[in-house]
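Narrative of accomplishments. A recurring question from our advisory board has been how the design workflow behaves on a single, concrete structure rather than in aggregate. To address it, we present the structure tokens for one chain from the evaluation set, followed by the sequence designed for it. No filtering or post-editing was applied between the two.
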């Protein structure tokens, strides 16, 4: 029997991203699970979700494709990939699937943000209109 490492990506979902991003993972048949964190200190609001698998079975390319298609679907969406050194954060917008896959393999965690609800588009909000 060989020892295999487990790979994991932690996604923190903010604003209106939870429903749509998790649905995109489901559509791509990428299993994920909710992370419940208990702490006595204040935390940033957001939901944590984890994708984990044996390193050989981790769907790196599938996750990269989900991220790219999810970001490109709406201008209000952002994905920030935080590298393990804790210093560098890279926005996924504009990268190809192979680049995002390479970044995911070296990341500490990923932040997913959609600033608008699913039923709203930029330019159609009442607050966007000028009187």
């Amino acid at each position: 029997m060989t020892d295999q490492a487990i790979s994991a990506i932690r996604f923190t979902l903010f604003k209106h991203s939870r429903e749509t991003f998790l649905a995109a993972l489901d559509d791509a048949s990428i299993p994920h699970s909710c992370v419940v964190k208990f702490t006595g200190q204040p935390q940033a609001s957001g939901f944590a979700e984890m994708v984990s698998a044996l390193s050989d079975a981790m769907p790196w390319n599938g996750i990269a494709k989900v991220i790219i298609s999810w970001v490109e679907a709406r201008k209000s969406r952002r994905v920030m990939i935080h590298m393990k050194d804790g210093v560098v954060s890279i926005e996924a917008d504009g990268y190809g699937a192979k680049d995002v896959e390479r970044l995911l393999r070296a990341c500490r965690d990923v932040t997913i943000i959609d600033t608008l609800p699913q039923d709203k588009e930029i330019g159609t909000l009442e607050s966007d209109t000028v009187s």
